[in-house]
Amino acid sequence: MQAKTYKVFDEYFERYDLWFRKNKAIAESEYILIRSMIRGSPRPWLEIGVGTGYYASLLGVDIGIDPSVGMIGKARSRGIPLLAVSRGEDLPFREESIGTVLIIVTICFVDDPSRVLDESNRVLKPNGVLVLCVVPRDSAWGEEYIRKGLRGHPLYRLARFYTRREIMDMIDHAGFRIVDVAGVLSFSPRDTHRFEHPSRNLDGKGFICFKAKKA
């Protein structure tokens, strides 16, 4: 994550965390999807871009990293066992020491997504698992966040959104094999928010998770 990005998160981490409380149906839908993807995956679980630790605390993530001191402080209050101020491009772990890497939307904010995925591959054990979740650029939600960024939203203006195909290509080029894909949020940002169960019909989904194994 580039310096100007995590400095903004240092300033706005409370506003970032408020989103989960204001959008409970969306957060619950995303959590259930992430949980379905990570369940049964080898330990330890590492979340790159742990943020304020909202999902990590619910999922039981073992290790979280984030370059934002403010985010890490909030995550610490949620009881994440091990936290470090670090970037996804330079993971402070030895080769083949992690069972599962979780990346939730963080790929949209990092300076070098390919390096983050290469580093994920490096630290994963043989047959380790990558769970990568994104808001697709070519979805109603991606389009809405892009519009907000263009209007000056302090966080979305720093994001780079990707299509499903672009994410799949990144995962493949980093030496992973995709084994499952599912999504939620079939409604638009302007519709009434509602809880949704994960679906493997990806058409129009605003939040999608890819599960891949280290080749």
Order of helices and strands: HHEHEHEEHEHHEE
Count of helical segments? 7
Structural class: alpha/beta
Q: Any guess at the CATH architecture?
A: 3-Layer(aba) Sandwich
End-to-end separation in angstroms reads 26 Å
Which descriptor suits the 3D outline? globular
Task: Work out the count of structural domains.
Answer: 1
How much of the sequence is in beta strands? 15-25%
CATH class: Alpha Beta
Mean pLDDT metric? 95
Oligomer: single chain
Name the CATH superfamily assignment.
Vaccinia Virus protein VP39
Number of strands: 7
Q: What is the CATH topology descriptor?
A: Rossmann fold
Salient structural properties:
single chain; 215 residues; alpha/beta; Rossmann fold; 7-stranded mixed β-sheet; 7 helices; 7 strands; 38% helix; 22% strand; globular
